[in-house]
């Protein structure tokens, strides 16, 4: 595809802003989170949402489905949830002649937007049922592969407060989330607006938006050119989190067991290209890279025992890398 034109950029911004406006009709005070979710949506990546109960994480995902006009599915993760409850199973059916055969019954994962609610409450075996779908865009049942719809995006939520009865997500699954976004508690003015929208007869809803083809924007985003020195900035930030590398910052050398994966650099580049398009630019800047460092890397660093014992956060390591 040729390099993007001003018309392409304007149409992309129009689609992005239209979705954002529809979502903000329903959600209050979460502009950064909405922007992050939409960035992951257009980049074709999965999103992990972390926040206390009642902050609208489920509503956010459902509203995105309404605004984008996509099939939405919600999976409530619980300790007794089984992999078949997610991906589906083979059922024995009998035809009109009495002959029996197996027929695949798709699970809730066969949707465009899949909300994995409180994903850390399910067992690792069940959590891993999403791995193939998230990475390969397919599921395998009894040796038969079943492709999931396109687009296919998983938006998972987890509650950082109630850790009893939860199972931390394995690193292999965390790495498949393009971004990890923190849903913050609203301020006083936002709370007033939430009360106005939810305790009166005014019930705003998101209307479907014609975004002009999701696949088209996928190609456009990847066609944005990037200078070598800008790519070098993304590479440096990722390598600075690896304790064994010469580029490692002091916090990484002391407190990190394993740094960010190559997927982190890919996430930085894709999100930075979207930021450039939204600003009407056809090139990526280092500021675009830095802007997405925290959401793209915070879930990809593994701290060592000393780092966990001293309360060091992965965000502190990333901030030091940005300032180096």
Task: Give the key terms.
Helicase, Ruva Protein, domain 3, alpha/beta, 16 helices, 2 domains, single chain, 324 residues, Rossmann fold, two-stranded antiparallel ribbon
Give the overall silhouette.
globular
CATH fold field value of the largest domain: Rossmann fold
Q: In total, how many domains does the architecture comprise?
A: 2
N-to-C SSE string, H for helix and E for strand: HHEHEHEEEHHEEEHEHHHHEHHHEHH
Mean pLDDT score:
88
Count of β-strands: 11
Our estimate of the beta-strand percent is: 15-25%
CATH homologous superfamily caption of the largest domain: P-loop containing nucleotide triphosphate hydrolases
What percent of residues adopt helix (DSSP H or I)?
40-55%
In DSSP terms, counting alpha (H) and pi (I) runs of 4 or more, how many helices?
A: 16
Rg measurement, Å: 21 Å
At CATH level 2, the architecture of the largest domain is 3-Layer(aba) Sandwich
* Main sheet properties: 5 strands, parallel
CATH class of the largest domain: Alpha Beta
Assembly of the depicted chains: single chain
Low-confidence stretches: none
Structural class: alpha/beta
The first-to-last residue Cα distance is 36 Å
Q: How is the largest sheet built, in terms of strand order?
A: 2-5-8-1-9
What does this protein structure show overall?
By secondary structure, the protein is an alpha/beta fold. It has two domains: 1-216, Rossmann fold (3-Layer(aba) Sandwich), CATH 3.40.50.300; 224-324, Helicase, Ruva Protein, domain 3 (Orthogonal Bundle), CATH 1.10.8. It contains 16 helices and eleven strands. The chain has helices at 6-26, 31-43, 57-68, 83-87, 124-127, 129-136, 171-174, 188-198, 214-222, 228-239, 250-255, 262-278, 286-291, 293-297, 305-309, 314-323; strands spanning 46-50, 72-76, 88-94, 100-106, 113-117, 138-141, 144-147, 153-158, 177-182, 256-258, 302-303. The strands form four sheets. Strands 2-5-8-1-9 form a five-stranded parallel sheet. A hairpin with a 5-residue loop joins β3 and β4. α1 packs across α3, α2 (31-43) crosses α12 and α10 (228-239) packs across α12 (262-278). The longest helix has 21 residues, at 6-26. The relative contact order is 0.15. The mean pLDDT is 88.
């Amino acid at each position: 595809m040729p390099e993007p034109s001003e018309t392409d950029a304007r149409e992309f911004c129009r689609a992005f802003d239209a979705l954002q406006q529809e979502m903000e009709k329903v959600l209050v005070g979460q502009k950064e989170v909405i922007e992050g979710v939409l960035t992951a949506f257009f980049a074709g990546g999965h999103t992990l949402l972390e926040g206390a109960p009642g902050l609208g994480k489920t509503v956010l995902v459902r509203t995105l489905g309404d605004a984008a006009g996509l099939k939405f599915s919600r999976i409530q993760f619980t300790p007794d949830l089984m992999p078949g409850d997610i991906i589906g199973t083979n059922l024995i059916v009998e035809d009109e002649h009495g002959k029996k055969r197996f027929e695949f019954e798709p699970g809730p994962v066969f949707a465009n937007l899949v909300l994995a609610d409180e994903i850390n409450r399910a067992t690792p075996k069940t959590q891993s049922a999403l791995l193939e779908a998230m990475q390969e865009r397919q599921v395998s049942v009894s040796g038969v592969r079943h492709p999931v719809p396109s687009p296919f995006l998983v938006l998972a939520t987890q509650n950082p407060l109630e850790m009893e009865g939860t199972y931390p997500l394995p690193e292999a699954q965390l790495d498949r989330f393009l971004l990890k976004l923190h849903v913050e508690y609203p301020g006083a003015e936002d709370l007033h607006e939430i009360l106005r929208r939810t305790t009166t007869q005014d019930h705003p809803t998101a209307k479907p938006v014609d975004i002009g083809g999701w696949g088209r924007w996928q190609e456009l985003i990847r066609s944005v050119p990037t200078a070598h020195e800008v790519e070098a900035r993304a590479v440096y930030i990722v390598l600075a989190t690896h304790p064994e590398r010469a580029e490692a910052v002091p916090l990484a050398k002391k407190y990190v067991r394993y740094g960010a994966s190559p997927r982190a650099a890919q996430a930085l580049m894709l999100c930075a290209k979207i930021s450039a398009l939204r600003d009407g630019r056809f090139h990526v800047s280092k500021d675009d890279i830095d802007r997405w460092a925290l959401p793209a890397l915070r879930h990809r660093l593994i701290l060592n025992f000393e780092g966990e014992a001293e309360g060091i956060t992965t965000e502190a390591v990333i901030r030091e890398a940005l300032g180096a």
